[in-house]
Specification:
- By secondary structure, the chain is mainly alpha-helical.
- About 50% of the residues lie in helices and about 5% in strands.
- The chain contains 5 helices and 2 strands.
- The longest helix has 17 residues.
């Protein structure tokens, strides 16, 4: 008779449900996608980051790779600037 492994005999916490795990992940968005969400060009987004009008990337790009922002960071930024856009 084969011995059971820890994951087979342990509680639910030791057996992560992949569906629940996927919901908890916060995907990264590249510069192009963030600029599209904001409604500007990539160069304008970079200027907004430099001037503090938009949060810096969560994962700065290096050696030609794009900057990346967490989806939640972009959502918070859009929520905070939405009233400013509507006020004009």
């Amino acid at each position: 008779m084969a011995a059971n492994t820890h994951a087979e005999t342990c509680c639910v916490e030791c057996k992560p449900n992949s569906e629940d795990t996927m919901k908890d992940l916060d995907p990264l968005l590249v510069t192009r996608d963030v600029a599209n969400a904001v409604g500007c060009k990539e160069r304008t987004l970079a200027e907004k980051v430099r001037t503090g009008q938009f949060p810096p990337p969560d994962a700065p790009g290096h050696r030609g790779r794009p900057n990346k922002w967490r989806q939640s960071t972009v959502a918070r930024a859009l929520d905070s600037i939405a009233p400013k856009r509507g006020a004009a």
